[in-house]
Amino acid sequence: MAENRTATAPHAPAWTTTAWLNSEPLTLEALRGRVVVVEAFQMLCPGCVSGALPQAQRLHQTFGDEIALVGLHTVFEHHDAMTETSLRAFVSEYRLRFPIGIDAHDAQRQPVTFSAYGMRGTPTTLLIDREGRLRSHHFGAVEDMSLARAVTQLLNEQPADLTGTPAGACAADGTCT
User: Fold this and answer.
1) Does residue 168 form part of some domain?
2) pTM here?
3) CA 20 to 30 Å from 52, out of 29, 45, 93, 120?
4) What's the CA angle centered on 75, arms 129 and 73, to 5 degrees?
């Protein structure tokens, strides 16, 4: 996956949504401690419909509750066609079962979360580590194996304890966690 971020990356920006489908409202803070995969999409985006959303469903089937998979419907064009009512029908028709937030818009009709992350378009895949840091930001198609490998790497990372020593590691003074 492109644009990998280091472990010293800043925390991912909060989501600004107007509604949630398949879930109560979710926040990154509430998901802290879990690896989060965000698939930003538009229901009229051919690459999203044919590639990214089926891939997200496969990811959900493969990793299940090991990860938090979140869809973000982020509309930057064709606003009148991509309403919440249309999205609900789309989600039902395509049997999408993971949580989907609807990105809010500013006064110029620009999607707020899309802008906060500096997205270039859809589909965009974001990987957020257990500490809430944005670790990968990829615009366009992602190979299944590359995505699975990146998710597995984040799942295998041990969160740091309060002293900054990764769990399961030994510190310079010989103490181990």
Assistant:
1) no
2) 0.84
3) 29
4) 45
